[in-house]
Amino acid sequence: MKKYSCVYNSSENEFNFHHSITAPPPNPAIHIHDCYEIYYFLSGDVTYYIEGQTYQLKPNDLLIINNRELHRPLFNSDQPYERITIHFRPEYVSFFQTSEYSLLSYFEKRKLGHYNKGAAEEVLEYGIDRYFDQIEHYVKEDAAESPIMIRTLFVQMLIRLSKIFTYTKNIVFKASEYDKKIAAILDYINTHLHEKITLNMLEQIFFVNKYYLCHIFKKNTGFTVMEYVTYKRIMKAKELLALKTPVIETCHTVGFNDYSNFYKVFKKIVGTSPRNFMQK
Asked: What pTM was estimated for this model as a whole?
């Protein structure tokens, strides 16, 4: 299969553009970014899980994902997989923010796992596809003016996207069945990360057999219950450490009673120790 890759990183490492065509990667892991993501799907057979919502994608569908949303693609066949991803930090467009207009409200003010998808029809209607083409043109050209053109085109893209996610129908795009009980469980987990959370507790609180709970949770989110809990705790730990919260205090605040276990899990997911993360 022909492979293609086009990559650009801004000099400040605040903006990354990646267009690729590959075979579907085996067993993609749950992941989360410490930046915002725009995911433009071009071809393949992919179901995308984001915080309990399931999105079956078709060409030219677009997803927006913030830095608090766990997500994972599921590949339903071995069709070639083509997508464009943009990862960026808010600082990259902060100069263009005003008190009257926010470029990023639709990233930041959504309920987790909701309003992630812009349908292909709207993406094409608002010309979002053309911005991807123009940005890629300047990525390839690599001229002196390319960084300026890439940033200004991206700001224009964000404004156009706001018309899809803020000013139009503004509905939740449901790709498949979404169990309301799962939504309640997700909300509970996210507000009780500091407490002990077990399957037995969830069974009692939500009046559902824990084995059935595991089944519907995996079906709706793509994650096991404890995978989700663990990743969410580490995300919260990263927030606290970035605020210089002492490591031991952070450990207990996010529901770990044993520091050695917290250390091992944090390092496995983040790639560095809690102390090193805080120092950086």
From this structure: 0.75
Reply yes or no on domain 4-167 having CATH 2.40.170.10: no
Give the distance from CA 98 to its chain's centroid. 25
120, 60 Cβ separation under 8 angstroms: yes
Question: pLDDT (tens digit, 9 = 90+) per residue, 22-80?
Answer: 999 887 777 777 789 999 999 999 999 998 788 999 999 999 999 889 898 999 999 99
The class that CATH gives domain 180-279 is: mainly alpha
Tokens of 269: 């997911």
- d(Cα 65, Cα 36) in Å, to the nearest integer? 6
Whether the CB-CB separation of 191 and 112 falls below 8 Å is answered with: no
Encode 112-135: b = buried (16+ Cβ within 10 Å), e = exposed: bbbbbbbbbebbeebebbebbebb
Q: What DSSP string runs through 48-117?
A: EEETTEEEE--TT-EEEE-TT--EEEEE-S---EEEEEEEE-GGGGGGG--SS--SSHHHHSSPTTSS-E
Residues 65-107: tens digit of each pLDDT: 998 898 989 999 999 999 999 999 999 999 998 888 888 988 9
Domain spans of the chain, in order of start: 4-167, 180-279
Element (H, E) at 15: strand 15-22
